[in-house]
Design brief:
434 Repressor (Amino-terminal Domain); 12 strands; 45% helix; homodimer; 3 domains; DNA-binding; Rossmann fold
Chain lengths: 336, 336
DNA sequence: CTGAAAGCGCTTACAG
DNA sequence: CTGAAAGCGCTTACAG
């Protein structure tokens, strides 16, 4: 659009070579006289010169840009994680491409390709679970950090929450409230690690001495919408007795569940206790505010960025892979 | 990280010049033999060659990248708008940089500068309201579309909602419910156009014959948090009589208001009717689901992208500026 | 239909 | 402390 100044123009004005201007731009002040530095500084400020980052990237093979690829950007979990990522990256001088795979493995692959073509320096991925091999390959050529969702049997850095701990907190809490039956409601896990982990945690804990007196059941949902959830909730209500409880495996599911309870006129906690994974913004404004397992989403995002950024510059020598696991917390409210 | 193939390598393999490969990459199939085209196609597919977009951008001064700068990315309104933007851009082959100004005018300016340095082709901006002149200048050199928030007295394309219509819908609705007093709760508007428009709409309508029997009051909040909102709500309750109603000017404010009502044990709609701007995901799960003025957020995003993209290629000849205004709708629920 | 060559705006050994 | 020159991977008149 506009004919911007180039390094050549500044060089001419200052009366030095472009090499010197370039050194200045890259902070190599030690290799120029104080006087030169000041003259350059002044001219750049006066002229409002801005280096062209596209050219810098092409030449230096460092774009100072990171691709963040989320399976579904438009859920509160992703949003909070993004906030953490964005803040760290931005404070380290990195710009992020935020990409939404829309829960499609194919789109996830396309996005990764697009991002490599854009010469990003590294990736933070919340994977759809459909590209394990592809992402493993990617991680051989680019710095990659997985966030929220791990890939089994592989050596890729990851940051996620302690799902066993989360489910344990929920079950112990419900137990302490005298529950006699607990249903765990989850989407069919597919190849998505947190879902698998939560389900496994639930079924494992259900077997343990502590919980043998409790009637534990797992309900898997293929489709997550109002109708499907209402159907399950309806069935539950008519089959169970005593003091039942429900654990929902993520925020979206919790929302549908609350709607279903409302539609079926079922009261929480009078008719059924409820604990939801994820502390959504609406949890507090329900008739009975929702007890939740809160993930440190913001910290998860920060941790992911903090893990990736050193990989972007460091010699690929330090190839120690780490899985960071952050603890969830239980926030007790009136639903239990 | 990896030594990628360059156009030169493909040219060598196919046995043509890089110019021909480049023409192929740019879809100029008419200027090469069918046979050449097929050979190139095959080799590229075989080798998994991907053109380097950074180099393409540098040479062609088209980066196929758009900067989206939102005053506050982390509110539901922005999210939905983004979804609309993202979908259109992505389907037109544009990648977007999503930037969060965190409600800081200074950060907004910094981001715009960063994005120009990244050679984006254009901007979609939901402005903080603190950089009117700066953005006006920007719009002289880059294609810019404002979304949600306009800049007064300027010729920049924009897409926003009909705020007068929204407030009218809310007031007529409350009127039809027999309200005798309406309070409009809004953040202090500053230089943010939708806030100004909604406030103006309210005060103007309040004067009209239709509403003269209704006691209309405007309440401005400097700070938007639980305590501040609770304080206002508390005052209101003790001063008013008959059949009062409240209109909240955005989704965030609605959330705090609902919390305040809860804390003060005030029932909706028994003690006070309520209409909120923005149809948030939690509106339906309240004890009394919230009547809202819903903005066509998704369509607003789409419209903004659809307006910007033609500006990216077309000669700057067609300089007709347009302000697209989309209609809001009232969704009646039990809070009124 | 195709190629040689210049150049987009930088960075980086290399030489002094 | 500084500059001349090559080159990052493409695109694009220009010439044939």
């Amino acid at each position: 659009m506009k004919s911007k100044l180039a390094i050549r123009d500044i060089a001419q004005m200052v009366g030095v070579s472009t090499a010197t201007i370039s050194r200045y731009l890259n902070g190599k002040y030690h290799s120029m006289s104080n006087e030169t530095r000041l003259r350059i500084e002044k001219t750049i400020a006066q002229m409002g010169y801005q280096p062209n980052n596209v050219a810098r990237s092409l030449r230096s093979t460092q774009s100072k840009t990171i691709a963040v690829i989320m399976a579904d950007i438009f859920n509160p979990y992703s949003m909070d994680v993004l906030k953490g990522i964005e803040e760290i990256c931005s404070s380290c001088g990195y710009t992020i491409f935020i990409c939404d795979a829309r829960d499609s493995g194919e789109r996830e692959r396309t996005l990764i390709e697009e991002m490599t073509a854009k010469c990003v320096d590294g990736f933070i991925i919340n994977t759809t679970g459909e590209n394990d091999d592809y992402i493993m390959g990617l991680s051989l050529e680019y710095p990659v950090v997985l966030v929220g969702r791990k890939i089994q049997n592989t050596r890729i850095n990851s940051v996620s929450v302690d799902n066993l701990r989360g489910i344990t907190l929920a079950m112990e809490h419900l137990c302490s409230k005298g529950c006699t039956a607990i249903t765990f409601l989850s989407p069919t896990p597919g190849n998505i690690s947190p879902r698998l982990e939560r389900i496994k945690a639930f079924t494992t804990l259900a077997q343990q001495a502590e919980f043998t007196t409790i009637d534990c059941r797992l309900e898997l949902l293929t489709q997550i919408d109002d109708a499907a959830v209402a159907h399950i909730i309806h069935q539950l209500g008519t089959q169970r007795t005593a003091r039942p409880a429900l654990i929902t495996s993520n925020g979206k599911l919790s929302l549908h569940t609350v709607k279903a309870f409302k539609a079926l006129n079922r009261r929480v906690p009078e008719d059924i206790l409820m604990v939801g994974f994820d502390d959504t913004d609406w949890a507090q404004i329900l008739r009975s505010p929702l007890t939740v397992i809160a993930q440190p989403t913001y910290e998860i995002g920060q941790a992911a960025a903090n893990k990736l950024i050193p990989m972007l510059t460091k010699e690929k020598g330090l190839k120690e892979t780490t899985d960071t696991v952050l603890p969830p917390t239980l926030i007790e409210r009136e639903s239990t």
